[in-house]
Design goal:
By secondary structure, the protein is of the alpha+beta class. It is built from 5 helices and 8 strands, in the order E-E-H-E-E-H-E-E-H-E-E-H-H.
């Protein structure tokens, strides 16, 4: 599998930092029928008893637009790129190097592997940074060294 990229819209809502706070927020979003492909929650160090929940939906903005009644709002200062492909040792380092070679700093990076694949979500300071990285990642698919690496580390599904 080649590396694929998707521009992702992030949404956020403040949640209560207490037992069940995250569960209630996710249940409310699910009750609106939203299908999520990214969820990240954390405490807010500057607000006692509060947390923040970040989510994205795989291509169906309408689902999340309906959830604005719950306080979920689009995050405009977090351009995010979803990168997927075959997993292999050092994949995160290779992606981070490609981003650095594009002259872009990373605002946030989360990822994981399941089976033989990986998915990561990388945040940037500007939409222009996101576009530069998207171009750099797509260029990896045709770079001879990357093709050689991919051929020799590819795992059968």
């Amino acid at each position: 599998m080649k590396l694929t990229t998707t521009h992702v819209e992030m949404w956020s809502v403040e949640i209560t930092d207490e037992v069940g706070g995250l569960a209630r927020a996710l249940r409310a979003i699910a009750d609106f029928g939203a299908d999520l492909d990214y969820v990240m929650a954390q405490r807010q160090s500057d607000k006692a008893g509060k947390g923040i929940l970040f989510v994205s939906s795989p291509g169906n903005r309408v689902q999340l637009d309906r959830v604005t009644d719950l306080g979920l709002r689009r995050v405009n200062d977090r351009p995010m790129l979803k990168i997927e492909g075959n997993d292999a040792p050092g994949m995160g380092a290779r992606l981070a190097r490609a981003i650095a070679n594009a002259g872009v700093t990373i605002k946030s990076f989360t990822g994981g592997a399941t089976g033989h694949g990986f998915v990561c979500f990388v945040g940037f300071d500007t939409a222009q940074d996101l576009d530069k990285v998207d171009t750099a990642i797509q260029a990896l698919n045709t770079h001879p060294a990357w093709a050689f690496w991919h051929r020799h580390t590819h795992k059968a599904a």
